[in-house]
User: Fold this.
Amino acid sequence: MTSVRRLRKAARRAPWADRNYLLLTAAATITGLGSAGALIAAAFAVLRSGGGATQIGLVAAARTVPLVLFLLVGGAVADRLPRHRVMVAANVLNCLSQAAFAALVLVGEPRLWQMVLLAALGGTGQAFFAPASEGMLLAGVSGPQAGRAFAVFRTGVNGAAIGGAALGGALVAAVGPGWVLAADAAAFALAAALRAFLDVGPAVRRERGGGLLREVREGWREVTGRLWLWSVVAQFAVVNAVLTAAQSVYGPLVARERLGGAGPWGLALAAFGAGTVLGALVMTRWKPRRMLLAGVCAVFPLALSPAALAVGLSAPGLSGVMLLCGICVEVFAVSWMTALHQEVPEDRLSRVSSYDWLGSVGMVPLATALAGPVQQAVGRTAALWGCAALIVLLTAVVLCVPDVRHLSRRRTPSPESDRTSPEPGRTSARSGRTPPDAPPPSRSVPEETPGEAHDGAPSRTPAGPPATRAVPVD
Assistant:
């Protein structure tokens, strides 16, 4: 509680903590609480309706497919329309889908096709919300303290996720999953109301430059024109996928066979969540000059998670590893957000975010689907070591990119006009070379769970500990 009071006190004094920032943070914290509980409630709702692992997988896939299909469209829409309106509309859709899910659970047993449909609506809402939310947050913070602002935001979101999971689990046991899903719907309604009060002034109004397809292509050029950006997106397409497979498929199996069951595994996941809060607090103070270098180097320790499962580390040892991984995730996440904030023009932030999200979640369903066959082919231990090796190898390759090593934080804040054109006498990373001061990336993949209506914000999480991305949360 002391640390929370300090954060609130610091936020009141900070020049970057304006009305919009506080509304965004409050809304994301509220929906973080609701979504974390709904994650547990949705799974138990499927089980109580007579479903099993196959049904849970089908509902999760139903959510993932529209998320992947509509992300690029969502990014283009968010750069054409006022972002806060896109966020409110997505929250309303998530609210309605979760309310319908709750009603079905409370009045009887929901059918599989109904849960699949509602999960698909939730994924569609997230596809439009995530790019708009990330663009709104990145565009709304200015000045040399942007990194601290992102870290404080993520502290609130990560803390809400931990508290929401604990509260949600207790409420599912006490009152049943239907009421927890209803509470999540109410959280989305409250978040939509808060976001409706966001003030979007003339300075951030964007001109429409043609059709959606043209704007999607412009976003693609914006990403591929920056070597540091697309190399990290490509890196995390694989890193997030293998981490999700290791944590959501292999982790529970290892826990059952070697650690004593769900209890020790739950403790490890809780340690990961605590690490994300601690890491965000660290980043409120630490501002590495070469942010991208610091952020990418922080990815190396993530390989310890599958490695610890491979060697059968004890429960306390595994919890320690997961705590370290949580800290490293936040170092990378805040660094990545700061890099995007500094280097990407404001009117293209949502489109770039949509490609970033697509890279992070696109391969996750494939990885989880292949986890079982790979285990049968080479064995679980070899599969886990393969996951660790891929993380180390890809991170080492990305560090060979000069822009990743040299992109540095600007010593003085640039005016808004400088977000779209480099300063006289210097070359920007936007034109292919890296200025001697720009920031790095961060990632987190939202867990794709049946009925979950998670919006997505600087932070995406695989089905275990939140993997490795930073993005807007619901």
Notes: Residues 412-473 have pLDDT under 50 and may be disordered. Residues 227-259 form the longest helix (33 residues). The radius of gyration is 21 Å.
